[in-house]
Design a protein that fits this description.
It is a single chain. Helix content is about 40%, strand content about 5%. It has helices spanning about 1-10, 45-60, 80-90, 120-125, 140, 145-155, 200-215, 220-250; strands at about 90-95, 105, 170, 180. Helix 2 (about 45-60) packs across helix 7.
C-alpha cells in the first residue's frame, strides 16, 4: 500500500497531471546533487531559498497551492519582518463577509497562509482538464529522492528518443516514471529575473526552487540537527562518566 501511495503522488508531482506508471527496474538511479542542507551538519542556503520562493511565486503559484505555509514562516530563510510584511501585503486574501454578507478581500498579513490559485478543488480540476495540481507544502517529503527528484524532473525535459511514442498532451521527461508527463516544461532560462542579480539559468531556477520546497517541507530541519548533535554529545559524555564511575566502584574488587 505504501508503494501504491507513493506512485499515486508521483503522478501529480509538480503538475505532472498524468497517472504515474511504476518506475521500471532498469531505469537509472536519480543523479545526486550537492545540497547545502545534506548531512548531519547541513544548513539551508538562505539566498538560494529566497530565490526559490521567487520562482514559486512567479511560476509555480499559478497552479499549485501551498496551504501549510504562512508568510511569517519566510523568516526561516532570512526575510526580515519588514520584507515579510511587504510580501504578505502584495497579495489579496479573503477578508470574510461584509455587512451585507458579501465576500470581501484585504491585503495579506504575515500571519496569513499563502493564498491558493483556485477557490476550491473543483475549480482547480476544471482549469486543468480534470486533474488536481498537488499542494506543494510537503512535496519533497512525498516523493522518494526528495530534492534530487524535484531537480531532476524540472531539468529532465528532452526530445523523445527515436521510436518513442509520446501521447497527445504529454511531454517527454527523462526522469518521470514512464517518461510521459502532462505538465509542460515549467522552467526556462531567464524565466525570472532574480533580485540579487544571479543569472537565472533553468538549472539555477530548478536548484533554487528545490531548496525552497525542501525548507517548506522541513522548516525544523536545522533545529532538529542541532538538537541531535547536542544529544549525541551528551550521550558520549554520560558514557564516559558512567565508565569512570564503574571503574572507581569496582577498582578494589578482586575478580
Amino acid at each position: 500500500m505504501r508503494r501504491l501511495s507513493a506512485l499515486a503522488l508521483t503522478g501529480a508531482l509538480l503538475g505532472g497531471l498524468a497517472a504515474a506508471p511504476a518506475r521500471a527496474a532498469d531505469e537509472p538511479a536519480l543523479p545526486h546533487q550537492a545540497w547545502s542542507f545534506s548531512g548531519p551538519f547541513g544548513t539551508y542556503d538562505r539566498a538560494s531559498a529566497q530565490r526559490g520562493y521567487q520562482v514559486y511565486k512567479e511560476v509555480c503559484a499559478a497552479c499549485h497551492s501551498m496551504r501549510l505555509m504562512s508568510f511569517r514562516n519566510l523568516a526561516g530563510i532570512g526575510f526580515n519582518p519588514d520584507e515579510i510584511k511587504a510580501l504578505a501585503a502584495s497579495v489579496d486574501v479573503s477578508g470574510g463577509l461584509d455587512d451585507n454578507g458579501q465576500p470581501i478581500t484585504r491585503h495579506g498579513l504575515p500571519s496569513d497562509y499563502f493564498p491558493s490559485p483556485f477557490p476550491n478543488d473543483k475549480a482547480a480540476r476544471a482549469a486543468n482538464n480534470g486533474a488536481l495540481p498537488p499542494d506543494q507544502s510537503d512535496l519533497v517529503k512525498a516523493r522518494e529522492g526528495g530534492a534530487d527528484y524535484v531537480y531532476a524532473l524540472l531539468t529532465g525535459y528532452k526530445d523523445a528518443p527515436p521510436g518513442f511514442k509520446v501521447a497527445d498532451g504529454s511531454y517527454y521527461n527523462e526522469w518521470f516514471p514512464g517518461h510521459q508527463i502532462h505538465m509542460p516544461q515549467p522552467l526556462h532560462d531567464d524565466q525570472v529575473t532574480y533580485a540579487d542579480g544571479t543569472k537565472a539559468t533553468m538549472e539555477q531556477e530548478a536548484r533554487d526552487v528545490a531548496t525552497f520546497l525542501t525548507y517548506v517541507s522541513n522548516p525544523e530541519m536545522e533545529s532538529r540537527k542541532r538538537l541531535g548533535v547536542k544529544i549525541v554529545l551528551f550521550l558520549a559524555l554520560m558514557t564516559g562518566v558512567t565508565y569512570a564511575v564503574k571503574r572507581k566502584i569496582w577498582a578494589d574488587v578482586s575478580h
